[in-house]
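Notes continue from the previous slide.

Worked example: a multi-chain complex. Inputs as given:
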Amino acid sequence: MSRQAPLGAPVIAARGLERVFEMGGTEVRALRGVDLTVERGEMLAVMGTSGSGKSTLMNILGCLDRSTAGSYVLDGVSVEGLNKNQLADIRNQRLGFVFQGFNLLPRTSALENVELPLLYDRSGRDMDTKALAAAALERVGLAERMDHDPSELSGGQQQRVAIARALVTKPSLVLADEPTGNLDTETTMEIMALFQELNAEGVTLLIVTHEPEISHYTQRIVELRDGRIIHDHPVAERGDAATDLLERRSLEPVGAP
Amino acid sequence: MTLGNLISVAGASIVKNKMRTVLTMLGIIIGVSAVIVMVAIGAGAQGQIERQIQNLGTNMLVVTPGSTASGGVSLGGQSGSGLTVEDAEMLASQSFLLSGVSPVISTFAQAVGGTGNWRAPIYGVAVDYQTIRDWDVVQGEFFDETDVRTIRREVVLGSTVAENLFPDGDAVGQQLRLRDVPLTIVGVLETKGQTAEGSDQDDVILVPYTTVQNRLAGRQFVSQILASAYSSEDVPAAQAEIQAILRDSHGLAPNEADDFTVRDQGELADAAQETTQVMTLLLAAIASISLLVGGIGIMNIMLVSVTERTREIGLRLALGAYGSDVMKQFLVESVVMSLGGGLTGVAIGYASSQAIASFTGWSTAVSVPTVILALGFAGVVGVFFGLYPARRAAALDPIEALRYE
Ligand SMILES: Nc1ncnc2c1ncn2[C@@H]1O[C@H](COP(=O)(O)OP(=O)(O)OP(=O)(O)O)[C@@H](O)[C@H]1O
Ligand SMILES: [Mg+2]
């Protein structure tokens, strides 16, 4: 899916990542040497207790923050030494973000929300931003809701708009920090089914979660504790969210609240 | 992001907070409309004064008693006269550059005649007074040299006096009593209107100066000598000539200062214009201050807007916006707001000027440069007061901004 990376190179190649926060004289070591390699087309879950450093790692992998030590090569590009604007370009071209709180612009249509990252594209390529945004919305099943404001959409629909926004630039990697944290069980499964579909189409996905039910829909689980990776293993029996969803719906008595 | 995108984002944000936007723009609206109205009034007043000065007479020189070292204008006379009728007669007989000379002997008296009484200033003048002041007679005629020489009891009325004592318009040929002296009305002057100071030039009674001197009792003095040069180029030389003749007639030694003052119309105009310019400047300064206050209002609301939209800023940065994109977004918003206020202000200012013009009869003039200046100033205010909030927005850290509640 990426445009420039050498074929076969990993999307993420991080070595010895450390992140130290200075807080009024005391040091908080949020990451203490993280090695992580993610291949193209992988779908993995980052797990761990609260405060273990999941978000900190995500921010560094998402080029929103810089590590205080270690090296990070994203999609064949060494990220250290890039300036603010170069990082902004990397985020715009190679990364997609899905947030727990959706982060859609209020009183702005779904279509315009999805179009937003394309408006900051500086590659100079010719594109029909509206058509691309419409295609991305169609992909997440919201073709009928393009003109709706976020306030007119359910939580699940809002998160779909956010996913469409993350996909519209055809990024090398989609990062999702607790994407289902604000959703009920059924909607969570719908979103996971969408993620699995996208992954099957080749999208590389990294999902932060602390729910095991979510992580078992991924291929691989990386577990953090105190800023270190303590487990990194493939998922033994990967679930299929679409099947589980159908099953769940058939179990529910008809007309139940 | 293209400028079009930026403007539509700014427009959307402005429209979403209509009430707030209108209140914020109010400062700029008031400031700009105040600038437009005040400059228009100032320009109107200036035009008015110019016309009045033109109205005073042609190539006119005014000699007043007493030396006036500094620039103050005293159009009225000073008591304790240093000027005499002989001075005027000497100027008339000795000068080469003056086409006309007239003393103005001032006195006050109750005029009785026609429908009743009227109190007006009485000026004893020579025949030349009419040409110097360029003042037409609409009924009857002005008194002539013979009338002056033979001390005839004749009088010419200003239009205000004529209207008040003879509302039927039949003043000419009728009698008028001044201090119990009966005089015959021979003419009525055309209406001149008010002076720059606002006094009524038409509230006047003109009598041959010889008649005032010899027939009317009471306190009287030569308040002015009016003269006119042959042409406007002759005015400075004529001024010097008057000075020389009068110094000679007053027997002043070379080291003594003049005991009279000679002014030409230009100086009168300058002094009057200086006053209105100071007034215009003052009004413009007040208006500018209100623009400044409007700017501070914009800055305040932009800071609020940046805080409110912290998460939006964080999102835009995460999606690949540069700091400069965010900065432009907020700058455009503040400039759109200030220019919107500016345009509204111009419209209101223009309408108010027209309204004031139609109520007062002044010719208020809204000039294109003023409009451009006011709009430009509003734009500069928008940029200047938008800059700090915009820079603050651009400097936000995306992670913290995204986390902001
Ligand atoms: N900006 C910061 N300044 C100081 N300390 C920070 C900062 N951000 C994170 N930390 C600290 O770093 C550690 C890791 O935080 P992080 O947010 O990565 O945890 P997390 O695994 O995402 O937790 P959660 O599951 O609650 O989201 C915590 O101890 C936190 O207090
Ligand atoms: Mg977290």
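Summary box: Residues A 54-55 surround magnesium ion (ligand 2) (CB under 6 Å). The radius of gyration of chain A is 19 Å.
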